[in-house]
Structures are given as C-alpha cells and as structure tokens.
C-alpha cells in the first residue's frame, strides 16, 4: 500500500514562495510507469492538476502555472517537492500529492492534503 504525506508551512505571505514536500512510503518514486503529482483544490472549486515528476525525473507542468512552478525530487529520501513562486491569495488551497498513471486530476493514491493559506 503506497502512502503519501504532505508537509510544509500552512501560511505563506503574498509574493513569497510556497514550498511543500511529499514523503512516499510503500513504493519507490523511481518505479517506472507513474507520475508523482501535485494537485490542489481552492475553496469552493474543483481539483486542479499543477504538475508532476515522472519516474525518470522528467517534469511536467500545467500551462497555466508553468512559469511559477518547480517540482523536484530526492530519491535518497523517497520525497518529491513543490515550489510555487510569487504566490497570491488566489493560491490559497488544499494541496495534495498523489501517484497517478497519467497527467491530470485522476490518481491511484493521494495524501490527506495540507491547507495552505496565502495572507499577509
């Protein structure tokens, strides 16, 4: 059973960079055929796919967020991270990390999510 757990600050100031880490257990992020993804859900809105890192380390980003998003990984810790720069209050959301077989909001396993609020 693959388990994912998000961690990071719950409050970020406008214009700063949001940084979250996903720790994976029960499976290696280097196992082929999967996308290790970040998905978010703003209050009152649907799920939004932000981007992913593949088993080879290749990265993929939503066109709408590409200029502000960076996803990386630490295979020694079986973790992958999200950085979202120049945040605004519109980036307030519950952020999830997930394992998927494709790029998008559909996933096989997902973390419980972490609330991030952008406010001064």
Core attributes:
single chain, 120 residues, 7-stranded mixed β-sheet, 4-stranded antiparallel β-sheet, globular
Question: Would you spell out the secondary-structure blueprint of this structure?
Answer:
Elements: E1 3-7, E2 11-12, E3 18-25, E4 35-41, E5 48-54, E6 59-61, E7 69-74, E8 79-84, E9 93-100, E10 109-110, E11 114-118
Parallel strand pairs: 2-11
Antiparallel strand pairs: 1-3, 3-8, 4-5, 4-9, 5-6, 7-8, 9-10, 9-11
Give an overview of the whole structure.
This protein is mainly beta and 120 residues long. 0% of the residues lie in helices and 49% in strands. A hairpin with a 6-residue loop joins strand 4 and strand 5. The protein is globular and about 40 Å long. The model has no long low-confidence stretch (mean pLDDT 97).
Strand residue content: over 45%
Shape: globular
The termini sit apart by: 39 Å
Compute the number of strand runs.
Answer: 11
Structural class by SSE content: mainly beta
> Oligomeric state of the chains?
single chain
Residues in helix, %: under 10%
| Helical stretch tally | 0
**Sheet with most strands:** 7 strands, mixed
The helix/strand order is EEEEEEEEEEE
User: Uncertain segments of ≥5 residues (pLDDT<50)?
Assistant: none
Spatial extent as radius of gyration: 13 Å
Average pLDDT works out at 97
């Amino acid at each position: 059973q693959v388990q994912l757990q998000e961690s990071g600050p719950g409050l970020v100031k406008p214009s700063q960079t949001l940084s979250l880490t996903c720790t994976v257990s029960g499976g290696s992020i280097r196992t082929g055929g999967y996308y290790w993804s970040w998905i978010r859900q703003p209050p009152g809105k649907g799920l939004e796919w932000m981007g992913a890192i593949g088993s080879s380390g290749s990265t993929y980003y939503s066109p709408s967020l590409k200029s502000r998003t960076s996803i990386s990984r630490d295979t020694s810790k079986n973790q992958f991270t999200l950085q979202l720069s120049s945040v605004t209050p519109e980036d307030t959301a519950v952020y999830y990390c997930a394992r998927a077989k494709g790029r998008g909001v559909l996933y096989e396993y997902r973390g419980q999510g972490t609330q991030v609020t952008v406010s001064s």
